[in-house]
Amino acid sequence: MSFDRADAWVRIIETNEDGRILQAARAAIEGGFVERSFDRLIHRDSKYAYEAFVLLSLIVKSGEVERLIEAVKNHRDKRVSSAILHVFKISKDANALAVLYNLIENNNLPLDLKVEIDKTISEMNLVAV
Is the pLDDT of residue 46 over 50? Predict the structure, then answer.
């Protein structure tokens, strides 16, 4: 018997049960899965990248995005920041959009990051549900 974490995260998202999604997100955060997922998001092996993508999508859906925002602002690899913003974009989540609006108002962000966040917001508005 094998266990595929990506499939497990997808099944939780598909339940569309807010309580279950929030509980799974908090467990993933506390278990350290989220931090490990940042670098895996840009991994060459698509299996690792997909698992990270699905987990971070679950995190966005749960609303527990503080660690994602911190990674966007502070991760040493700008490709990771861009990949996390991509997860936000395709989430089509109204709460995520509000979080990004708040983030872009941060005067301490580098201009290139503000431009990328602004682009993400614009594209999210185009992909509206």
Answer: yes
What number of CA atoms fall less than 13 Å from residue 97's CA on the CB side? 14
CA distance 57 to 3: 19
- Report angle CA 103, 37, 27 to the nearest 5 degrees: 90
19-54 as b/e: b if 16+ CB within 10 A = eebeebbeebbeeebbeebbbbbeeeeeebbbbbbb
- The encoded tokens of residue 89 equal 């974009």
Look up residue 128 and give its two tokens: 């509206």
* Matching residue, tokens 């431009």: 115
What one-character DSSP code corresponds to residue 64? -
Torsion from C-alpha of 41, 47, 52, 57, nearest 10 degrees: 110
Which pTM was predicted? 0.90
